[in-house]
Design a protein that fits this description.
The complex is a heterodimer. Chain A is mainly α. In chain A, 81% of the residues lie in helices and 0% in strands. In chain A, helix 3 packs antiparallel against helix 7. The longest helix of chain A is centred in the middle third of the chain and has 29 residues. Helices cover 77% and strands 0% of the residues of chain B. In chain B, helix 3 packs across helix 6 and helix 7 runs antiparallel to helix 9. The longest helix of chain B is centred in the middle third of the chain and has 25 residues. The two termini of chain B are 32 Å apart. Classes of the chains: A mainly alpha, B mainly alpha.
Chain lengths: 159, 167
C-alpha cells in the first residue's frame, strides 16, 4: 500500500501533471473530453437498452445494432477512462478521500460487470416480441447503473 | 438612441429574482439542476450525433437515414426540452456573470448556428429523404449539415464546461 501511495504521489508531481493542474485550460479540457465521451457512451447504451426493452427501433435487429454501436462505444469509453485517469492522477489524495468518487468507482465496476456478463449476452440474440420481463428488467438495471455512475461523478464536485 | 433597459441590467435583475435566489441559496437545487443538465446530454446531443454519423456514412449504414431519424433522432426532442429548461434556470442564477463570459457567448452563438443548420436541413434535405434513401446516396449538402452539427455540438459541450471555470 505504501508503494502505491508513493507512486501516486510521484505521478501527481510529474512535470506533465503540474503543468495540467496549473494551466488555466488543463482541467476544462480534460472535463470536456470526459463529457463528450460520456455523451457518446451513454447514448450508445441508451439506444441498445431502448431496443432491448422494446421501446424503440423495433425495425432493427438487436445484434446488428450492438455491432454497429460497438466501435463508437469503445472510442467513447477510451475518452472517458483516459481523461478520468489523468484527472485522478492530478490529485489522487483528494479523490481517494471523496465518498462520491469511491461510490462512483464501485458502481462503475458493477456496471461493467453487468454489461459484460448480462447485457452482452442478451444483445447477441433477438429479443422476443413482445419483450420478456427479463429484457425489460435488464434494460432498466443497465440504465440505472450507468446513469448512477454519471450522477456520482457530478457529486464529486459538490460534496 | 438608448435602450430603456440594458441587456446587462436585465441579466442582473434576473439573477435577483426570487426564483434565481432560491436556487442559488438552496443546498441541493443547484446541483440537482446542473446534474440534470449534464445527464440529459446523451438523450439530446447524443441522439442527434448518432444521426449526424449516419448522414456522414460512419454508423448505421445498413438502415435508411429516414429510419435513423424516426427511431433515434426523435428521442432528442424530450432531451432538448430538459436541456432548455434546466439551462434557463442555471442561466438565471448566474446571469450577471454569464453575460460577459466569452465561453457563454460562444455557446449561444454555436446554438444559433445549430438552429440555422437544422432549419436548412429541414427545408432543403428532409422533404426528399425517401428519394435519396432509395438511391442509397446521401446528398453532399446533407453530409455537410451532419458534419457541421457534429463539430459544433462538441464545441457547445466544450464551451458549456469551460464557462463554469470562469465564474
Amino acid at each position: 500500500m505504501f508503494a502505491l501511495a508513493s507512486f501516486l504521489e510521484w505521478c501527481s508531481n510529474t512535470r506533465w501533471m503540474v503543468y495540467i493542474r496549473d494551466s488555466s485550460f488543463g482541467m476544462p479540457a480534460l472535463q470536456s473530453v470526459h463529457l463528450v465521451g460520456l455523451t457518446m457512451l451513454l447514448a450508445s447504451i441508451l439506444v441498445i437498452n431502448l431496443r432491448l426493452a422494446g421501446f424503440s427501433m423495433m425495425g432493427w435487429s438487436l445484434p446488428s445494432l450492438s455491432r454497429q454501436l460497438r466501435p463508437w462505444a469503445a472510442g467513447a469509453i477510451t475518452m472517458v477512462i483516459a481523461s478520468g485517469i489523468v484527472m485522478f492522477l492530478g490529485n489522487p489524495a483528494k479523490y481517494l478521500a471523496s465518498y462520491p468518487f469511491l461510490f462512483k468507482m464501485t458502481v462503475l465496476a458493477v456496471s461493467i460487470l453487468f454489461q459484460a456478463g448480462v447485457l452482452r449476452r442478451l444483445s447477441t440474440m433477438e429479443p422476443a416480441s413482445p419483450p420478456r420481463r427479463i429484457d425489460l428488467l435488464a434494460a432498466g438495471v443497465s440504465l440505472t447503473l450507468w446513469f448512477t455512475v454519471g450522477w456520482a461523478g457530478r457529486a464529486i464536485a459538490f460534496v | 438612441m438608448e435602450l430603456p433597459i440594458s441587456l446587462l441590467g436585465w441579466c442582473q435583475w434576473l439573477e435577483h429574482t426570487p426564483l434565481a435566489t432560491a436556487i442559488s441559496e438552496s443546498v441541493w437545487l443547484f446541483p440537482l439542476i446542473e446534474g440534470t443538465h449534464i445527464m440529459a446530454l446523451p438523450l439530446s446531443v447524443g441522439m442527434i450525433v448518432m444521426f449526424d454519423l449516419r448522414l456522414l456514412g460512419l454508423a448505421f449504414q445498413s438502415a435508411p437515414a429516414s429510419r435513423v431519424m424516426t427511431d433515434i433522432a426523435r428521442w432528442s426532442k424530450p432531451g432538448f426540452a430538459i436541456m432548455f429548461m434546466t439551462g434557463a434556470l442555471l442561466f438565471m442564477t448566474q446571469a450577471g456573470k454569464a453575460y460577459g463570459n466569452p465561453f457563454f457567448r460562444a455557446k449561444l452563438l454555436f446554438l444559433l448556428i445549430l438552429g440555422i443548420n437544422a432549419a436548412v436541413y429541414h427545408t432543403s434535405f428532409y422533404p426528399r429523404m425517401a428519394e435519396w434513401d432509395a438511391d442509397g446516396r446521401t446528398p453532399v449538402g446533407a453530409r455537410v449539415c451532419g458534419a457541421l452539427s457534429l463539430v459544433v455540438w462538441i464545441g457547445v459541450i466544450i464551451c458549456g464546461r469551460t464557462m463554469a471555470y470562469q465564474f
